[in-house]
Design goal:
Helix content is 22%, strand content 39%. The chain is an alpha+beta fold. The protein has a single domain, classed as Hotdog Thioesterase (Thiol Ester Dehydrase, Chain A, Roll), CATH 3.10.129. The two termini are 21 Å apart.
């Protein structure tokens, strides 16, 4: 994990490779819980028997489940100290190049792709997180996260 002592320190680190997080196994319980939370019970995610005969050979994680894990990975990649508040501002782009079959292990690899000052005195940082599948040739997700940090 990369530690920044103040939000302003981010300004000199555009292009910085933040490394990778620990691996996380995507089990059927996580997929089912996400399905319940979102109401997306499509069979390719939750019907183990039918999905094993389907196009992916097993249930797959929802794309938005995979994307939402950027929130789990980002604090493992970087910490910004000296803040009064940090907020998720949104995302610029999300892509899902490969499905995540149940039982897969994924991790996030991050790069700081832009930093700018906001009109209200904050620092806005874009971190592109590539969510990799262990042993996979293509990433599960590429997401450009946007966070804002305000100095204490």
């Amino acid at each position: 994990m990369r530690v920044f002592e103040t939000p302003f320190e981010l300004e000199s680190h555009v292009g910085l490779d933040l490394g990778a997080t620990d691996w996380l196994e995507i089990d059927q319980q996580r997929i089912n819980t996400f399905a319940d939370a979102t109401g997306d019970h499509q069979w390719i995610h939750v019907d183990v028997e039918k999905a094993s005969q389907g196009p992916f050979g097993a249930p797959i994680a929802h794309g938005y489940l995979t994307a939402s894990l950027a929130n789990l990975f980002l604090p493992q990649l970087m910490e910004v100290r000296g803040t009064s508040m940090g907020v998720n501002y949104g995302c610029d782009k999300i892509r899902f190049p490969a499905p995540v079959p149940v039982g897969s292990r994924i991790r996030g690899q991050g790069t700081i792709t832009s930093v700018e000052r906001t009109k209200d005195g904050g620092i806005q940082v874009k971190v592109t997180i590539t969510i990799e599948i262990e042993g996979g040739s293509r990433p599960a997700c590429i997401i450009e996260t946007i966070s804002r940090f305000y100095a204490a």
